[in-house]
Design goal:
The chain is mainly beta and 112 residues long. It has one helix at residues 33-40, and strands at residues 16-18, 21-23, 30-32, 45-46, 52-53, 59-61, 65-66, 73-74, 79-80, 84-85, 92-96, 100-104, 109-111. It starts with 15 loop residues before the first strand and ends with a strand.
Length: 112
Amino acid sequence: MSTLPPCPECGSAYAYEDGPGLACPECGHEWSAVAAEAADAPRVVKDAVGNILQDGDTVTVIKDLKVKGSSSSVKVGTKVKNIRLIEGDHDIDCRIDGFGAMQLKSEFVKKA
């Protein structure tokens, strides 16, 4: 019984070790064993000070943020309630009073 993960491309259960990585004999896809383990690990999002953020947290903006398509900006100290964590460069999805729905980078907020 194999303890190796299935191929991420075709889902084949016949993956095998090929040097430092893994390979699939059915589709020919090769991938790193370290990358396969990292994909299974839960993603941790931290704020500017290193606090771990979770869905539903309240955060405070630590820097004036320009808003594309608007002449105004989100000011320092603006509280943002009930955030949602998402994948991508801008990893916080939220609604800010006066601006509406927007996405923020976690490096520009701190947990309130």
